[in-house]
Amino acid sequence: MDYGDYRVGFGRTAGTLVYEDAGGAILFAFDLRTSENPEKGKWTIELSSKPRDIDLKLLKNEDPERISEAFERTKQFALSRGYQVTS
Length: 87
Description:
A hairpin with a 2-residue loop joins strand 2 (16-21) and strand 3. A 5-stranded mixed β-sheet has the order 1-2-3-4-5, covered by helices on one side. It is built from 1 helix and 5 strands. It is globular and about 40 Å long. It has one domain (6-86). By secondary structure, it is an alpha+beta fold. The relative contact order is 0.23.
């Protein structure tokens, strides 16, 4: 989904969500499981807060504020698609 200055979507690699902005791409891995509260959604995404680069290697020297914003925006994307999200 394109939001103007950033975009979020499911990655080409299974179990990843991709956040992209002017600084590049950040991948967040996730596990999918059946929801414990089906009235709130059928599936729960357990989103990893450990960001990765496009090659799935952990990011190390990235701006913490950018990572936090990317994580929250990625979480909001999943919520907007009807998933429950845990981290």
